[in-house]
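# step 3/5: fold
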Amino acid sequence: MKWSLANKVAVVTGSAGGLGHALARELHRRGCHLALLDIDYQGLVVLKDALETGEQKITIHPTDVACEEDVLSARVEILALHGRVDILINNAGISISRAFGRMPLPDYKRLFDVNFWGAVYCTRHFLPELQQQPDSHLVNIVSDFALMGFPGKTAYASSKAAVTGFTKVIKTELAGTGVQVSLVIPPP
């Protein structure tokens, strides 16, 4: 049986551009209501305006996923506006290309805060809603860089490798529940 996305409520982080933008468009095309999160408010406005047809609810939530308080605020808004969450796509991420020895540690930490902790915060705070739905889905997006030793990608690869391990454990812990867990590894 094919899983229908019609009338599901999908939360997509990092949706103002790139892969998150494309995912939001495809989910909308398939009938999802959308709660779009990104630090780029203007990008969210542009996306919402492009998708708005009146058929599905689309809400935007300027959110820095590296900030747990932002994630908690977005969760409260989303539940007030949508009433539930069926799909969470942890897509938000940043990348810095710099050799390890030249990477300032505050930049390394910021990258981990967004890429790893953002996925952890969103999963922690949206998982109770996912668990209330009979057929929900948690999707974590990583990268081939998590599996490769590509020069200049130490911080990025490390953060995505951490998300990979996190996702594998969460998938095991949620086995047999109504929450499906997917790890998506797009190529660089």
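# step 4/5: annotate
The helical segments are 18-29, 41-51, 68-82, 105-132, 154-173.
# step 5/5: archive (pending)
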